[in-house]
Amino acid sequence: MKAMIGKKAPHIDATAVVNGNQIVEHFSLDQYVGNKYVVLFFYPLDFTFVCPTELHAFQEKLAEFEKRNVAVVGCSVDSEFSHFAWLQTDKNKGGIHGVTFPIISDLSKTISENYGVLASDYDYDDDGNAISTGTAVAYRGLFLIDKEGNIRHYVINDLPLGRNVDEVLRMVDALQHFEEFGEVCPANWSKGKDAMEASGKGVADYLSKH
What does the entry list under GO cellular component (predicted)? Predict the structure, then answer.
C-alpha cells in the first residue's frame, strides 16, 4: 500500500450507528474538519472475540479522547443492522451495549479498500490479476486524522492482535504537543516529559539531559 501520512483522509459517506441507538445515513468525517481530531479505527467483524474488548476499551477512555477534542469512530464491514443488534447486546453476552461513539457500516468494503486495510485471500487468474476469494474483512487499522482532515499517524494490526488504547492517546498527545509548541517527541515520550527542538542543538541538549 502507498504511504498515507500527510495525505487527506479518504472521503466517507456511509450509514452509521451513533449514540448506540440511532441509525444515521450519509455519515461523514467531513463534519469534524476544522473542529475536531479523529481517531478512525477498523475492526474485522461484529459478534467476534477480540473486537468487543477493543470497542469497550475505546469507550472506557472516551472521556480522555473528548478532553483532547478527539472524535472516536469505529468501522467494520458489517451492516448497520448488525451494528445495532450488537450494540443492544449486553457485555456479559459478548455485546457492546454502552458504546456511544459512531460505528460505520462498510458493507460494500469500499471504505476498507480506500484506507488500505481490507484483508482477503487472493488467487491469480491466467493474466496475473489478483482475484479476491472468500469473505473479506478489515484488518485492525487505526488512523489519527488532524483537524484539517490529514492523516498524521496510522498503524495496521493483523486480525489476532488487539490494540493498546493508551498508545493511541499517547500519539494524540504527541501530535498536539508538536502543534502547540513546535517541539518534536523522542522515543518513549509521554505527556509531561521533555520534548526537543527539531535541530542539532535541540537533540544534543536533550541527549545531554537523559
Answer: cytosol
